[in-house]
Specification:
Layout lengths: L1 H21 L21 H25 L3 H27 L10 H11 L3 H30 L3 H27 L2
Amino acid sequence: MKKMLETRSRALMLVCLAALAGGCAAPENPGMTPTTLRPGGLQDPQFVTAAAGNGRYEVQASRLAMYRAASPQVRSYAQMLVDHHTRANNELMDLVRARGMRLPGVLPRDKGAKLDRLASASGGEFDRMYIRIVGIEDHQADIALFERASRELRDPELRAWASKTLPALRSHLDAAQSLGSAMR
């Protein structure tokens, strides 16, 4: 009996370490291993973790922009991102819960550092930084991630959600590029 408990404990620890190393969300049931892991492709839990972290970060950065931006156009853009990303985050949360997974509760470190940089800027500098980082760079990365997810994810509902979300991400990027050009 003791040997069986040690084996189970080691197996659980390996699953947890693999989840942390791969940046994926841990299953609700610790005895359950993710069925979506596969070598060489984008893994469903890996995508869920990245999409959730990015979505939370964009909402937080955009809420900051709603109050700190000097330009009414940038504040309006930030409001649109809060609305769209909050809706998308809620849809993702519903999909994830239905699969017995949990979303990470904290922002990725790199996103926290970006928020800190944004918080230290003000006025026109803030506007330019927010549009460049959140509006353009982060949305370019999001689009690449979601395009890959729409091709590679195993879960058909997650794949469909990624595909459905892509047009909004592209629209956000286009709007940010237009704002960025107008601010030069």
